[in-house]
Amino acid sequence: MHSDIAQLVSLALYSPKPEESVTFFHDLLGMEISHREGQSVYLRAYEDFYQYTLKITEASQPGMEAVTWRAASPEALAQCVAHIEQTGLGGGWCADDYAHGPAYRFCTPDGHRMQVLWELDYFDAPPDLKSKLRSRPSKRPLRGVPVRRLDHVNLMAGDVPANRAFMQEVLGFKLREQKIGEGGAEVGAWLSVSALVHELALMRDASGARGRFHHVAYWYGAPQHLLDIADIFSDYGVRIEGGPAKHGTSQAYFLYCFEPGGNRVELFGDTGYLIFDPDWQTVVWNVANEGDLEKSSIWFGGALPKSFYRYGTPVVGGHSLEDIGR
Amino acid sequence: MHSDIAQLVSLALYSPKPEESVTFFHDLLGMEISHREGQSVYLRAYEDFYQYTLKITEASQPGMEAVTWRAASPEALAQCVAHIEQTGLGGGWCADDYAHGPAYRFCTPDGHRMQVLWELDYFDAPPDLKSKLRSRPSKRPLRGVPVRRLDHVNLMAGDVPANRAFMQEVLGFKLREQKIGEGGAEVGAWLSVSALVHELALMRDASGARGRFHHVAYWYGAPQHLLDIADIFSDYGVRIEGGPAKHGTSQAYFLYCFEPGGNRVELFGDTGYLIFDPDWQTVVWNVANEGDLEKSSIWFGGALPKSFYRYGTPVVGGHSLEDIGR
Amino acid sequence: MHSDIAQLVSLALYSPKPEESVTFFHDLLGMEISHREGQSVYLRAYEDFYQYTLKITEASQPGMEAVTWRAASPEALAQCVAHIEQTGLGGGWCADDYAHGPAYRFCTPDGHRMQVLWELDYFDAPPDLKSKLRSRPSKRPLRGVPVRRLDHVNLMAGDVPANRAFMQEVLGFKLREQKIGEGGAEVGAWLSVSALVHELALMRDASGARGRFHHVAYWYGAPQHLLDIADIFSDYGVRIEGGPAKHGTSQAYFLYCFEPGGNRVELFGDTGYLIFDPDWQTVVWNVANEGDLEKSSIWFGGALPKSFYRYGTPVVGGHSLEDIGR
Amino acid sequence: MHSDIAQLVSLALYSPKPEESVTFFHDLLGMEISHREGQSVYLRAYEDFYQYTLKITEASQPGMEAVTWRAASPEALAQCVAHIEQTGLGGGWCADDYAHGPAYRFCTPDGHRMQVLWELDYFDAPPDLKSKLRSRPSKRPLRGVPVRRLDHVNLMAGDVPANRAFMQEVLGFKLREQKIGEGGAEVGAWLSVSALVHELALMRDASGARGRFHHVAYWYGAPQHLLDIADIFSDYGVRIEGGPAKHGTSQAYFLYCFEPGGNRVELFGDTGYLIFDPDWQTVVWNVANEGDLEKSSIWFGGALPKSFYRYGTPVVGGHSLEDIGR
Fold first, then answer.
1. Where are the beta strands (DSSP E) in chain C?
2. Nearest-CA distance from C60 to chain D in Å?
3. Which residues of chain C fall below pLDDT 50?
4. Hey, are the CB atoms on A283 and B7 less than 8 Å from each other?
């Protein structure tokens, strides 16, 4: 059965240091600024087809404003909205936002704000940005180590099973990989509506907080680019949390860092593996099996620090990067 | 609208030098031999989930025996068969073949043999081949530069529009990219049922022959591996036809070579770009536009030789590699 | 016996489009501008230790002004000058140039202008360019795909053996690789004073001209960067002459392009192989041996066009890129 | 002043599990077995020019038997021997060993056994191993992720300054990089006789033992190969100690692992930077400077575990891998 959702469209983040955040995405990750409006800046990677995939808005705390999905068709959008309304988690239609048509708002059980839409604006390159590579919506930028496209979002949840089930049952996501912790508790879920292993991951939030943001991932497609951006991060003082290394879940080469506003950003160095099997059986990593705990996060490369499992945005008391330590 | 087809399952090739062909795929491309039966050998890449993706059968001429697709569900299979039967191109159900359940046979308008099925055998690794990487169906081999999975098939067709329309209208493929040649003739079509740009490409066969095979592609996922296998091909006397270079269509890094039986094989060094947009508009390359002819085949890297546009298997009179020259 | 020469220091080029040339090296190859003086601009790569490695001076024709070598010590400089003076090719000491101490000028038998010095200025990074990587003289730039250091120079010569012998006998270079063409004529020589296969290559100039420049090479050290810069060149309209591909001679991954002034530039994607053997026997490629002609230039990757063997700067009548064709 | 030593020739190791050690180097690192004699096996990488670069001999404990250097010429050998004899550390000439001519034995002040020679056997490939790439002494192997050549050796020393001074003053090595620890003590030295940053590194041995072995490094030249071999190590149960990551000292991409006999092996993914400056000033990393402690070992990538600083071979009481922990 196919999902009513077709793809991840964009992510809206809050930053207490918006200009520094924009400089990070523009100068180091080579993203283009599409638009500025009020306290918000809209950006896209050079192979993102839509007008923007990242919105950064000034706020006192970092964190996620909302994640936007595109439905598979106008009919799928209507059907999707009907399913959400039955759950009581719907938030009604919102007026058009920049470059987005009518969008229906809702929350996950954990309280993450999301919206789904059909209509939206495609990026139409001005002559100086137009590429002769016809599937490339704008020229490869000459800044930093430019990311190619938005890949996925990872959210922390107080109750992984409930939120995972909502994404599956209401929105039609498929559970691709799953992580089982001590006592059999589900502590991680990787969900997708496409051949990707995930457009959305859910991780248990041990802090007791709800609705927090773990990271957004942009995609390179060549492992060397993780080495390149890590080199730049080290030279320009950006804090690397983990990697470059290779994940067990998703198999992808990754790097985690923090943008100046305090949100975690992941860079993906390749595609990992893709899922085409229509009868896919969820890959389960269980801490009860020898090696699974370590290998699911890190197939090889340096271990992830404690902060990876405890730090999210907004920051909650006693769980800042300094509190957690390395 | 979703396709009844979910994915490319396997390819069956003929080879006049079967043992040399098997050695090529086993020793240089690191594929595993799953089975031998009669005049046939069955192989898989180490991240292919099914029992095999390549069948090589001894024959006097190289060429393609058949391509096998998997339906999206048992219901989709039934619906797919019904659609095919309406075209008069159906060939009926065939008895089970090795590792494949009941399959419905049909031909494209050009005469390429295909089949579609739902049931098939998954590869279940013996202990010594089992990987601790749970999404990896068998350990990474220690031979050659091992390919990871089957990617796509490219077929030559006397009439590209008719065959492309058959794949779209009867089987539900989407037209992702298209190449328009002199006089407005459609000379190439890239079709898919997933986020990949193509599981199937069609190229005009100028020889007047019908139903010929152009190439099968296996996937690496890291561009360096194309450099590695090219180094090995040069050292071991395998003829490289083109690349390593980067395609315009699909954006992927590629290498073309010939296996000892005479069939063309492509290696894919990365994923190129992926398509998640549910409202994708076909990317059109038109020879009438400056730069499109060259850039569609080769975004950068050495030009493709004449053989690329004229040589297919089975070989037809006056179109052998020697006849065509470089 | 050790050479009096220790290393290649810098190259001075002429350009009829100096600002466009500087933009090419600065924006696409990420080089830093060290200085501007008169009609000249001085640049360096971010891991070049000296004040500059490339000087670009406005002139009506592209071509090479001079190549500068550093002696192994003050004593070696004196000895080197004595050797040159015996040949009658010496040109005397010249007044200090920017960032270079006293230099002794000379010509090769073919007329290429060279100079040798001991004293020169090191680059001392201002605080904002200082790297925490202590062997890196300045931070990795955020522009284009930044080259790391100057690698080598390739000169065309009417008489390869005479010029090669001069470099060996007078300056102490070692002959690392050699190419023998039709009739046993020496058509190429790769010479070095270090573990590199060459700091200087000589190629036969079939045009009848003397003292011409073939190319200068800057070094990346990671093969992926050749794919990256080729992608940028294709997007920004820079003409690629050959590659990315792998040389037989030197084994290095390479790319050839033309800077806007018309001079050929090579990018080196790795180190190739290094020579530590104190008793190295010259590697000889002889067109009389099967495969040597092709494999010496291109171990794998697309063939080099005719222009590679005929075009040099300054351009001579009938040998422009347009005249030669592809 | 040039060194009497030209290059590192070979390393002889002890292994309590010689057949497993040989399988590791042959199957996973793709090395060729040149010879077997007594309890010893001799191996070489496919771009090692000499008959062997690694000798593995059965013994009850892992550790280093000896390291062999080649002099720059027969005259340099004589001069080198004269210098050593003056120190009282000379051990006399030894009878020819396999593929090595007359060699003069000596010890470092710490007791590491070394020898220096001029005459030795080059590898002469049999027809089936001969490469058409004329600078490649044998075809690229089809096993594992084959290393290309021996790169360097790292030894632990109770007294780094004394041993470093011996290598400089007696053998003519240059001090390229240096690490200063707490209280101003010299804890690491990187020494070379060529453009490489080191053929020999010395690290302080905090265990109180003398003359121990830290690691031998083989070279790939392409960063992706570290990711490839790490993938294989994870699949085949080889313990990775650190990396893939990038060193501060030498700038090279690296991976540390343990061969089955217990000796540490490093793989080098690129060349790092090369030193051509004849007046090179030692790069000093001082723990007293902020960031130097961390950045000198790891420019980026996961931290090195305690074992890296404490484990060497032979193993001394209380310093086994199990004792040290992670």
1. 5-15, 32-37, 40-44, 54-58, 63-71, 90-94, 103-107, 113-117, 149-157, 174-180, 186-192, 200-204, 213-219, 240-246, 253-258, 264-268, 283-286
2. 34
3. none
4. no
